[in-house]
Amino acid sequence: MIHIRDAHEAYFPPIPADVDLPAPLRTSQLDPLAEQAANALRQEGESHNTVASYRSALRYWSAWYALRYRQPVRLPLAPAVVIQFIVDHATRQTPQGPVCEMPAAIDQALVAAGCKARPGPPALSTLTHRLAVIAKAHRLQGLPNPCADASVRELIASTRRAYARRGHRQARKAALTRAPLLRLLDTCDGSLVGLRDRALLLFAWASGGRRRSEVARATMDRLTRVGPGDFVYVLGWSKTNQSGSERSEIAKPVTGAAGQALEAWLSAAGIGHGPLFRRIRRGGHVGEGLSDAAVSRIVKARCALAGLDGDYSAHSLRSGFVTEAAAQQVSLAETMAMTGHASVSTVVRYFRAADTRRSRAADLLAPDASEGP
């Protein structure tokens, strides 16, 4: 049997006389430098877009609180404050129409401060995101979470049900399926910008509907050429694999038209290492890697050039790939292996929508071929 004194002797090393150790830490309190390092690691572990959205939400909370309560915000918040936040931003039906409790003067002040783009209540998704952010801020500081209070949870649930009964649905970006994607590709000429954009669109779409962050992070050291115009890209960090662990499904084929477009771009740009997709400076100089936002701007610009009607974004490539796979009856398992979706329910709705469009039961009045003319 090992006694505590044995463990003490085994794991407490002798301290040389000429070594000046720092003051011992307290087991009940985190060292300020360690706390700073831990916060830095948390931020580095989050995506840039996530961190930006958290900052924006917390800035909004601070501004709203200061205007509503005439004092700086301090955590923890009382559940009553969160309830007030909800009723200030969620609409309810009245005989005069939908209303919320936000005073017009405070709403205008928030717009003037740049905390919101326009007056009026936000979308339900924006409200729930801000509630999630303030809840996480409390958890990270080890404080009582007001959003976990029974009265707050019930109000949030009731608000969701109220919006659902009004027919509210979360707005979704239009999907770039095969037909509209081909129209985008037709706008890409033989210039460096055209070659880059064609390669980017096809890489993102054909390799499983890559997210804009994944496209921006794509690097040559993860790309393997297995033949002329035929590649395999090993996806590292992603939204559904945030630890970057090795998995069988992280190898994504980039072949056919996508592989040929990537080959043409890499050759024309002279890229042998570093980011796959880069900024093109004046004079045709190939610059640094693209940002997430730049990828989004490229997709939107190509949609505009193609004259597409609808609300498209970089995520339209991902939803378009899944939608097209469902329409072409690619198996659910094969589709998910390409996209990397962690949830079957997220993907299966595309397949159900495709099945509904093909369903014989949806048009029982259609003429039966056996009946003849």
Give the structure's gist in a few sentences.
The chain has 373 residues and is mainly α. It has helices spanning 4-11, 32-45, 48-69, 79-89, 104-112, 124-140, 150-165, 178-185, 192-206, 212-217, 256-269, 292-305, 315-327, 332-339, 344-358, and strands at 92-94, 97-99, 223-227, 230-234, 251-254, 278-281, 285-289.
Notes on the protein architecture:
With 373 residues, the protein is mostly helical. The protein folds into 2 domains: 46-165, Tyrosine recombinase, N-terminal domain (DNA polymerase, domain 1, Orthogonal Bundle); 178-358, Orthogonal Bundle (hpI Integrase, Chain A). The chain has helices at residues 4-11, 32-45, 48-69, 79-89, 104-112, 124-140, 150-165, 178-185, 192-206, 212-217, 256-269, 292-305, 315-327, 332-339, 344-358; strands at residues 92-94, 97-99, 223-227, 230-234, 251-254, 278-281, 285-289. The strands form 3 sheets. A 3-stranded antiparallel sheet has the order 3-4-5, covered by helices on one side. Helix 3 crosses helix 6 (124-140). It is globular. The protein starts with a helix and ends in a 15-residue tail after the last helix. Residues 4-9 have low confidence and may be disordered.
